[in-house]
Amino acid sequence: MNGLSYIIENIGVQEIWTNGDETLVDWGAALVEKMKQKGITPRHLTSNSSPVDVGGVRIDVLNPGKGPPPGEDLNDREINERALVLQLRWGDTAFLLPSDIGEPTESKLVARYRTLTSGVLLSPHHGSHWSSSQPFLRAVRPDTIVISTGRPVRDDVLERYRQTGAAVFRTDVHGAIRITTDGRRYEVVPFTNR
To answer: Domains (ranges, CATH) in the chain?
Structure first.
């Protein structure tokens, strides 16, 4: 469950967004139990969900296409392909948060949505070689890519990112990365300037 338990316990979480697959993963039972303890009812989202407005920020759910499969055993990669993908828009800025999806879901998103263009892209699946396909990167056209990882990123993935012309920030190199926006432009501030 990584840091979710700590966040739920200490940050005052009032709502958790989920695709409903938490019972399909090994850490899901602990998450469900923690939500029950805190009285949090999960908000199940799919690409059929209406956009959510939070303080003027429009949040579109782009994936998964439908709720959890009833009683199906899915392997880890199939579960990852069903991960929530969110696009946040405020004014002229857009951020794409693709969770742990890989190339199969990236292809579906490119085919399904006219505009995936986002100035900031959180690297899919922590910069895994299973994700960040060229067609997906061309559709997103990011100016900034943030890779949230504690391990080295493969050179072929970094080369694909370099080819986009985007600035690349990595948590394994730069530490925490803060991004602020006024709705017109955004500023990226890494913890370290390496």
So the answer is: 1-44 (no CATH), 46-190 (3.60.15.10)
